[in-house]
Amino acid sequence: MAANNAVEPDTLKPEKIGLTARVVNERRRTFRLPADDTVALMGETELPVFDLSLGGFRAKVEDPSVQIGDMMTGQLIWRGRSQAVSMRFQAQLMRLEGGQAGFSFDEIAATEMDMLLRIMTGIEAERITRIESLQDAEDRRVRTQRMMLGGVIVAFLVILGLIGLWQFGVMAP
Q1: What radius of gyration do the chain's Cα atoms show?
Q2: pLDDT of residue 21
Q3: Is the sign of the CA dihedral 66, 67, 72, 75 positive or negative?
Q4: What per-residue confidence (pLDDT) applies to 50?
Q5: Are 95 and 102 in contact (CB under 8 A)?
């Protein structure tokens, strides 16, 4: 008889596992974009950014002195193929695990929000360009394969015709 490993719903309540209301309510409220070409510059430290949203970002953090709740200020810099965009920010460290930190933007001024939207638009535009480029390459590959297959079929038919002529000769009426 198999053991029942189900967890009672009552045991998953936030207060039962020691989570504060702030952490429980902190969920991904906005769409996240992968942000490979983006860094967060905090003082002299440049942190690679993994993803970005209107609410914050996730970055690599190696400083052991940072703690959840810390307020950080810095500059978010996106370096695209044809442009670079930056914005100043103040963010609170909300999550820290495995060398990655989740930051939540603290009140963003209108000009900085505009820069954030430009960064996110640029990231998405370059992602779409990369996808279209990959699709075009795949289309060229498929067309080339079809042309090669057509060539093989034509060559096979020509060889088959020549064998027929050799075997049976030219039949005159």
Answers
A1: 30
A2: 46
A3: positive
A4: 92
A5: yes
Q: What is the pLDDT of residue 76?
A: 92
For 101-126, letters b (16+ CB in 10 Å) and e give bbbebeebeeebeebbebbbebbeeb
* Closest to 76 measured CA to CA, from 54, 95, 98: 54
What is the phi/psi pair of residue 84, to 5°?
-130, 135
Measured between its terminal Cα atoms, the distance across the chain in Å is: 85
What pLDDT digit, counting tens, does each position of 53-102 carry? 888 999 999 888 888 998 989 999 888 888 888 889 999 999 988 889 99
Rounded Cα distance, 162 and 160, in Å:
5
Amino acid at 91: A
Phi, psi angles (nearest 5°) of residue 85: -130, 140
- Residue ranges of the chain whose pLDDT lies below 70: 1-30, 170-173
d(CA 77, CA 41): 7
pLDDT value of residue 15 = 53
Segment holding 133, helix H or strand E: helix 110-168
